[in-house]
Amino acid sequence: MKKNKLYEGKAKILYKGSEPGTLIQHFKDNATANNNEKMEIFEGKGVINNRISEQLFTLLSSIDIPHHFIKRLNMREQLIHEVEIIPLEVVIRNIAAGSLTKRLGIKSGEKLSRTLIEYYFKDDILKDPLVSEDHILTFGWANQNELDEISTLALRINDFLVGYFSALKIELIDFKIEFGRMYKNEEMYIVLADEISPDSCRLWDSETKRKLDKDVFRENSGYLLDGYNEVAKRMGLLIENKASKNSKPTLVKG
Ligand SMILES: Nc1ncnc2c1ncn2[C@@H]1O[C@H](COP(=O)(O)OP(=O)(O)O)[C@@H](O)[C@H]1O
Ligand SMILES: [Mg+2]
Fold first, then answer.
1. CATH superfamily of the 84-205 domain
2. What is the reported pLDDT for 251?
């Protein structure tokens, strides 16, 4: 059966789902940086991100974070609830890195005195500019109640993920999430959408500070998937293939 493609983005494709109100989220192997200036294909990235995101969303259910994930369908695809995406990239920062260090001259790796939430307007043409809460309210991208809910959820998600990754000897430096509106029984809920993966998080090895995320591609500092595989391995999603030194790690069946 030919799938009904609704949207193709930089890293994923959305297809119509089997039931009304559902979508299929397909993870591609494309890596992009600098707002599409740089693009490369890393064979297997989509497979790893699909599994990592599935695992993290499933774990977030255990602390009652509402989200769009329903189930994984195959190696690259997951069934999700269709939501009305709020056009904001919500960035949660624990340690200074990336644009924060460039914009404000703060040293990379410096622990922030408190968790910092930033909002970027999701618009590729405008290059996702940083916006204030006042911009969001003025232009109606979200209302005050929605913003309160988003920041509360973002901090709870952060608390959980910091603890989860620290047990894996990984520091969660910062990450980007998206939220959407879901309607059920005439009520509107704000739910976590999109993905959480090494494409959207900064993850450093706690001891060596080695980067295990997309910065490796942005900075051209190694083979991107080595870090992604390391994260998947520590999350229990990979079995080491011991038969041959050259063989690739295999995803655990599940
Ligand atoms: N549950 C959902 N319902 C509708 N749209 C979603 C949902 N989850 C994520 N999206 C949107 O699907 C797209 C995912 O593809 P991606 O390659 O990340 O696109 P982009 O290049 O726009 O970031 C994003 O635009 C994201 O906002
Ligand atoms: Mg995206």
1. ATP-grasp fold, B domain (3.30.470.20)
2. 83
